[in-house]
Amino acid sequence: MATVVLPRSLLTLFPGVERRHEIDGANVDEILSGLDAAAPGMRDRLVEEGPRLRRHINVFVDGQPADLTTLVADGATVHVIPAVSGGTD
Amino acid sequence: MPDVQLLIGTPKGAFILDSDPQRADWALRGPLCEGWPIHDLIVEPSSGAILAAGGSPWYGPAVWRSDDQGTTWSHSSEGLTYGDGEGTKPIATIWSLATGPDGTVYAGVEPAGLFRSADGGRTWSHVEGLTNHPTRSTWQPGAGGLILHTIVPHPSDPQRVWVGISAVGVFETRDGGATWEPRNKGVRADFVPGPPPETGQCVHKFAMAAGEPETLYQQNHCGQYRSTDGGATWTDLSKNGVPSQFGFPLVTHPRDPKTFWVIPLTEPDEGRFMPEASAAVWRTTDRGDTFTRGDRGLPQDDAYLSVLREAMARDTLDPVGITFGTKTGQLWHSSDEGGSWQLVTGNLPEIWAVEAVVRD
Predict the structure, then answer these.
(1) Percent of chain B at pLDDT above 90?
(2) Of B65, B186, B215, B268, which has the fewest CB atoms closer than 10 Å, so is most exposed?
(3) Cβ neighbours for B61, distance < 8 A, ≥ 6 positions apart
């Protein structure tokens, strides 16, 4: 079981969804798929074709940069954070 | 008494302006859709819902839907994908929306392709026939990218749809999307040598004449055009009095098939602003044989204004209201079919899209 922490700008897209979630999953891909149970459509907001993390979405597992294949240990903390590189002028 | 709404798409979200039928005073709401860049907005005729198309630089493409005139919104991109195959490019954003006579909602995306929804935009399926067109490997982007920006469904035949792709041209299907034919004969492509190709034309916008589904008017990178045979052949109108062949938006009159409006801009390598920095909207009432300049109320000096392809719209009142938005955030409205103009607001973000809605 991992603790997943979601960013404010993602939560505004899914009203009522909590910031922290306890989700079972062996890797980041499974964790993000698990988010869809709490918020249908959330995986599409974070993962693009490939599949791979969207270009300006960063995921950290226990503070370390991760991709979809990164393993998630029991008790780990997974942060989803929009990259500083996104946005429009 | 109907209410009139202007739906505005910008890189910083959608906005809505509300007015009464006099269209003299407007109340602004926004930014909506959580500040996502929004390229197009339409109203679903069967429900009155607002649909907004765009894409977040972080969270990807989605179609937003509001069933309460913009107060609350949902969003979905379920099925909006070319798949996970090797080399498949992700869909960056959605550029265009339209509804067909059977209630189908169409979405045009970047990189160019067409999707459709049978449930009001909640789930989507790929119109593979267009992506599989034999010319697909030759498609090249315009300055705005390889984008499907214009969708014109036939008003009564759900099997027929026209689309516009930059810089590829116009295509039509007559079998519900299974197969597509290029519709670019007679349209110049001055940026390539030799005679005009079958595809590769830089269509900027086209629209259907009221009550005449075979009559289409087109604003192209290389001129204004008319077709009276469903796009099979086009006649160049750019020698008929407009000050430039270049421009982006074109809107047709809701009842008179002979009338449409364009906003010519200086040539693409000469700044792309209103010629002589003097703002004007040009109207034809004879199918493009002649054009008349309309500039009353618009700035005539130092007006280095540019208007993008989706940023002009008309309502359905009588007289028709015309609205256009500029790249520098000014929104101009005419409630007398372009005869005179008033500034609605001058401080919006870059305006990408304008839609006008009359609600009974």
Answers:
(1) 96
(2) B268
(3) B54, B55, B77, B80, B91, B92, B93, B94, B109
Q: Comparing C-alpha atoms, which of B315, B321, B262, B249 is closest to residue B290?
A: B262
For residue A24, give how far its alpha carbon lies from the nearest alpha carbon of chain B (Å). Answer: 23
Subunit contact B57:A49, Cβ cutoff 8 A = no
CATH number of the domain that A12 lies in? 3.10.20.30
pLDDT in tens, A40-53: 999 999 999 999 99
Residue A89 lies in a domain: no
Are the CB atoms for B8 and B331 separated by under 8 Å?
yes
Range of A45's domain? 2-82
How many structural domains comprise chain A?
A: 1
A positions 42-81 inside 8 Å of B (CB): 44-46, 48-51, 54, 56-57
- The predicted-structure confidence for B118-171, as pLDDT tens digits, reads as follows 999 999 999 999 999 999 999 999 888 999 999 999 999 999 999 999 999 999
The answer on pLDDT for B235 being more than 70 is: yes
Within a domain: A63: yes
* pLDDT for residue B1: 60
Q: What is the ipTM of this complex?
A: 0.95
Is residue A52 helix, strand or coil? strand
Q: Is B340 helix (H, G, I), strand (E, B) or coil?
A: coil
Please state the rounded mean pLDDT for residues A20-45.
Answer: 96
Backbone angles phi, psi at A11, to 5 degrees: -65, -30
For residue A84, the chain B residues in CB contact (below 8 A) are none
Q: Is A88 a member of any domain?
A: no
Q: CB-based contact (8 Å) between A36 and chain B? A: no
For B192, the token pair is 């390539």
Distance from CA of A6 to the nearest CA of B (A): 13
Residue type, B253: H
Structural contact between residues B62 and B75, judged by C-beta atoms closer than 8 angstroms:
yes
- Mutation site, A9, A14, A44, interface B, largest B CB count within 10 A: A44
Please judge whether B58 and A51 are an interchain contact, meaning their C-beta atoms are less than 8 angstroms apart.
no
Per-residue model confidence (pLDDT) at position B75? 97
Q: Provide the pLDDT for residue A4.
A: 98
A74 inside domain: yes
Take residue A66 and report the two structure tokens written for it: 């991760």
